[in-house]
Amino acid sequence: MHSISSAAVPAATPTTTVRTARDVAALGTVLGIWAHPDDEVYLSAGIMAAATEAGNRVVVVTATRGEHGTDDPVRWPPERLSAVRVGELAASLAALDGGRGRIEHRFLGESHGRRHVDGTLAATAPDGPVTELATIIEEIAPDTVLTFGPDGMTGHPDHRAVAAWTRQALRRTAAAPRLLQATCTVEWSREFGGLLPPMDGSPDTFPVTPAADLAVELRLDAATLGRKVAALAAQDSQTGALREALGARRYRRFVGTEAFRQDAGVRSAPRRGVGTRSRAGTAPLLPAPGGRSGPARPPHPGGRPCADLCVPACAAARRPA
Ligand SMILES: [Zn+2]
Question: pTM (2 decimals)?
Fold first, then answer.
């Protein structure tokens, strides 16, 4: 049962910014709550690797199997893509952990006999998934929850839904973990922000948080970055096109820093890079919320079922550095 509280999401005691793998140990038990396979590895692989090395428990919850993460559903029908992505996710977490099986994973809803569908989360009545998440949070009793902010990072409606569900779930439990939301550093935004059109056309995507306001600013050391790149490569259906588009060295910079802000008190930085991105001639790379119609997306290199966080590959491929 869940103790229902009308209180706001509890703000954990602020601590110093997590900057090194050693600092990550202070995050305690880490619960990552994400929408699709590959969200977790792009945004938190280094944290997960460092936490497991420190002996901390790490649990990843993924809301969907990413079965619609393609613009070629004939070649990649949902059943096929779901199977591919489930296998890729398991291989990715294994690669991140050196095959030791210390990163736990579950799909949201499976313990309740439910299966959430990629691309439908924003249209899903929240009570069911919020209850499912609250059950997991009470069971795991995390010290730290990692997820998206209300921006969904990319603006993906599924990401925004997961962020909202997570906050609601925390209100339903007695747990009071630190709620950390993925964000972008100023430096990262300067280099990559111009490549990243928001998926839903909203101006709050790819949020930039000043260094002083970051709860986590983890610049991965070479060994951890190598493990992250291997874990990303294990999800090749979603990540391969971006890796090819950026090139190996730039790709390592793209994924080499992980940044999170604490839930409350976020201040927006000037959206340099992001704010000056050129939108002219750039068709939306994902359909607007509520439909999959709209301008066709450009083909992805190699015919991969590329979508989601990998979508910037389109822009990167068309705008060489
Ligand atoms: Zn995603």
Answer: 0.81
